[in-house]
Amino acid sequence: MVTMPEGGIHCEEIDHTLAVLKINLTPPCLLDRPRIVYLAGPMSGHVGHNYPAFNHAEEVLKEAGHVVFSPAKLDHGIWGNRPGSEFPLRRAFSAYTNFICNRAEAVVVLPGWERSRGTLAEVSLASVLGLPIVEFAAWCEHDYKMVRHIKCRLMFKREGE
Fold first, then answer.
1. How does DSSP classify residue 32?
2. Phi, psi values for residue 104, rounded to 5°
3. Which fold has domain 11-160?
4. What are the structural domain ranges in the chain?
5. Backbone angles phi, psi at 30, to 5 degrees
């Protein structure tokens, strides 16, 4: 059994941990059609809880037609916690896992996900449920190539008409 030290796991343990958890990443082409996605990524220990990365990814995915559930949006005060009060982790994870179990068609992970205990929990649940797991960076690269390819085809079609 793999135990995770406080603050996540160390780089040399990542491949072993992913193998133990049996997490397989899905090719980014899976998101070629709009889907309902859960956006997962590290928050603890990041400046601004990594909200800028979550917000950017959410915007890009929505522009591509996806419906996005971002925990960064949920964390903005709906819990009724006052500044300085402790974050209600159990209530938050209840909402996150409820969405993953009942609505998500795929999970998109942000860079650093494999070193985040919370994200590993979310991804493990998605894996058990058979949901596709796609890395955001790989999807962006794939999506960019697809958009360029489509634009090129349209351009050549017009010239050849």
1. G
2. -65, 140
3. Rossmann fold (3.40.50)
4. 11-160
5. -60, -30
